[in-house]
Amino acid sequence: MVALARKTLFREWSRFVPAILAIGFAGVLLVMQAALVLGIFGSAAIYVNASSADIWVGYPGTQSVSLGRSINRDIEMLLRMDTEISQVEPVFWVDGDWRAAQGQGGVSIYLTGINAQSNGMMFDHILPPDLRQRLLEPNAVIVDRADIDTLGVVVGDDAWIDGKKVHVVATIAGLRALGGVNVIASEQTAQMLNNSGTTYLIARVLHQDQIAPVIQRLSDHATFGPYELWSAEDFAWRSQRYWMLDTGAGAAVLFLAAIVFLVGAVIASQALTAVVVSSAREYATLNALGAGINALRRVVLAQAAWIGGFGMIVGGVISAVLLVTAQQFDVPIGMTPLVAVVCIGLVLGLALVSGLIAMSGLLRADPAILMR
């Protein structure tokens, strides 16, 4: 029966095209939605993922990088005293109001003050050494190229953050953030803008397997005031989880994903049911020759699996083109192998669900219709 399903699919392929396209475009919707979720919520952790630090130190209970509060700078000495830690540097966080010219409307920005030396860990995955050196210039700042219109400036222009003058020296890609515009400056510039103290300390360890022991060893030193240590991986996930779950945005995305799956199943099942109904006489002939209804159901399910496979190929090609296009226009997207596998599983599940719904069309495969 499986061989019959395959031969029918290839011989009468034109009848199955609508179902294949329905499955394919449902897959495109799922993939693009997943990519946008990863890109948008992943930007909440761009500060961690774009840096090479292994350990972050911040105020206890900090839910997201953008919600940090000042900590005691003396904790830096505690970190430097640990023989497993090879490098420590402070990170300054400033929530500011950006104005391209005095008297114009403002834009809310997140300014990160970093170590601008060539060996700095913060943003070293996206900030090349030559641009890092430019931050050593007085009042120099770097912004994302996609935000340049929002900020109303071009490279070389002056602007004002909280009424204090800064100078845009360069733009980079990959710095877009959730909820505001990211701006990078040196720690000296950040302190000039707002000297509210150190927000984070980041550290690099000599051996990756020592991250957890170091965190455990350096926690709970009450003499340094309130602070908490996280591994970079944990802090990145904590930031993304806050925006996905605690803000309610994640629930909305999951609800939308369920709607996409439901709509895709309905459209694909209708297309597949139409194919089954149009083949009612063939199924009735098989039934009259002794093929039971269960065998015919297996034929429909096998056809649904084949349709799911072809739909997955169509959806994969279209999704790849859309993802590349989105990257060229700096749209925040992301994709991981695990999420890709989940999308493939959902598309195949969608095809099988459609096949189960389409089985209702077999009710017309009564041998009696051959007498009409």
Automatic annotation (TrEMBL):
Q: Where are the transmembrane segments?
A: 20-48, 248-268, 304-326, 338-363
* InterPro entries in the record: ABC-4/HrtB_transporter (IPR051125), ABC3_permease_C (IPR003838)
Alphabetically ordered keywords of this record: Cell membrane, Membrane, Transmembrane, Transmembrane helix, Transport
Q: Which GO terms describe its cellular component?
A: plasma membrane
* Recorded topology in the membrane: Multi-pass membrane protein
**Record domain ABC3 transporter permease C-terminal: where:** 255-367
Pfam families registered for this protein in UniProt? FtsX (PF02687)
Question: Any idea where this protein resides?
Answer: Cell membrane
**Protein name according to UniProt:** ABC transporter permease
